[in-house]
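Please produce the structure of this protein holding guanosine-5'-diphosphate.
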Amino acid sequence: MVTATVLRRHAGGYLVHSDELGASLQCSLRSRLKKEGMSIFTGDRVELAEVELNEGGERGSAVIAARLDRQNLLSRPYIANVDQVFIVQATHQPEWNGLLCDRYLVHLRLELASARHFICINKCDLSCREELAALRNIYEPLDYTVLLVSAKTGEGVSELKRHLSGKTSVLTGPSGVGKSSLINLLNPALGLKVDVNEDLNVGRHTTTYSELYRLASSCNEITGWIADTPGFSLGELKHPQPSEVAWQFPELAALAADCKFGDCLHLVEQGCNILANQSKIAEQRYRSYATLIEESQNEARLRKETSQKVEHGLLKYVGGKEGRARAVPKLGARYRAQSKRRARQQLADYQAADEDVDETANVNEPPFCDEEDLGFKAGEELS
Ligand SMILES: Nc1nc2c(ncn2[C@@H]2O[C@H](COP(=O)(O)OP(=O)(O)O)[C@@H](O)[C@H]2O)c(=O)[nH]1
Ligand SMILES: [Mg+2]
Ligand SMILES: [Zn+2]
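Below is the modeled complex.
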């Protein structure tokens, strides 16, 4: 059996690439798999049948006969078998936002625990050395690799390339930080649209759209695969249970393990080991921790009150730009149902803060998407 990796889906089927054949192939899904509701996403490894190649042997068509086990799966957009994630941020344009960076780190640790996570600070041409050094001082001791790059000047890009080599990588982060610009620099042939999120309609389409782009050496040998993402809306970022938030902060996890109180949230208890050692923790990180605890508690309360699964739509974000906003419970469903227009207005209000908001994200699951098959249920994603 020939194996291949799915690069993207399109109206009629899937584009896959087979290393074995050195070819890209247009594929349809075997009808039995279609009937079974088998989901096939970008990044999935599949077995091919009925392979037909063109004369040059670099293109062809085939049928997807099976999907191999997934190593992991990023949702929104769906990308399977991700080796590593680069959380792209900037220090200016947009301004550095520590809470947002920590939100991404926690979300991706929950969502893609088996992938390696990098912090990639782009637009270094706009930053001063001191502020970059301060950020490295926060994150490098936590075992995150911090890459300093500029898509504009090319600074740091050779190191980025070295980390991308031989891997399937995803760039994520808020809009405007330069993800598409970086990918364009890595593969100039792509010409990805820069600043796409200025146009909401385009942004909407890209949220559920995903594609693996090839990275190649100067002699056109494939050196890796990379996917762009439009970033997550705040409502899509996962929270752990309140008691588990500390485990997602490496510097707190070590101290939490030695806290003498079994059910401590490390916020107020006299004698708490984290509070006693607070001077060793970066202020920004502790603040992020406290915010995530509060939000996680809100979610837990809601779950209890409604004794049902908390959907993304039950929390809203108010009170500030991007990651500075807090999640608070929305009004009861009775009120929500009648105020779609108001919700739209609200959406517009914090659109600037969160340019990747995708109203349609929840209903816009790709076809053939079987929840059982994903290993989780959509409603559980916030837990
Ligand atoms: N000064 C500077 N501007 C950049 C850099 N990278 C991207 N930009 C600009 O930032 C804006 C957003 O870039 P884009 O790639 O669309 O960001 P994305 O939303 O994360 O994909 C564009 O106007 C880019 O030209 C950089 O390294 N330095
Ligand atoms: Mg982009
Ligand atoms: Zn404690």
